[in-house]
Each structure stands twice: as C-alpha cells, then as structure tokens.
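--- STAGE predict ---
source: upstream dedup step, 1 unique chain passed
mode: sequence only
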Amino acid sequence: QVRLVESGGGLVQAGGSLRLSCVVSGGTFKNMGWFRQAPGKERQFVASISWSGMTTSYTESVKGRFTISRDNAKNTLYLQMNNLKSEDTAVYYCAAGAFSTAEHLYEDWGQGTQVTVSS
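--- STAGE serialize ---
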C-alpha cells in the first residue's frame, strides 16, 4: 500500500519561505504533483514533476516563486516556496501517479500539511 506523508508546513510571514517534503513508501516513486486547497475553495493544481525530474510544470500564480524537485534515492518530493503571499495560504497535498494538472488522474494522496502566510 502506497503511503505519502507531507511535512514542512507552518506559519510564515509574507515574503518568507518554506520547504515542503513528501516521503513516499510502499510503492514505486512515480510522476508526482503538489496540490493545495484554500478554505472554502476547491483543490487546485500547484506543480508536477516527471519521475526523472527532468520535466516540471507549474500553475501560473507560483511560477518564479515555487520549485518542485525530487530525490529518487530518498523517495522524497519537495516544494520550495519563496516569496510567499497571503493567497498561498492553504492545505498542501502531495499526489502520486501522474504528470498532470487534473487531480483525478493521481492515484495516491497524502494527508496534507497546512501553510499559513500572514500579511
């Protein structure tokens, strides 16, 4: 059974940085993605990365501020978030099994980690 465990969330001031991690166990470390869900809103795509790490994709609002990466030796996915804004406040989820903006294509999900950006 595949298990995804996120960590690294927290409270940060606007303009600050956080790095999220997602450790994958119990299965193949596949194409991966990050999604987020703000209060009262639908879950939305943030970024995705191919299994090799060679190809990445970002939603427009985070381009130039967020970087998705992975360490296949450690089965760990990362999301480096810089210059955080209040609108980045959300629960962040890692997802496994697709390189896509469509969440229904992902097979496995973590439990989420809260990111709160104070202005």
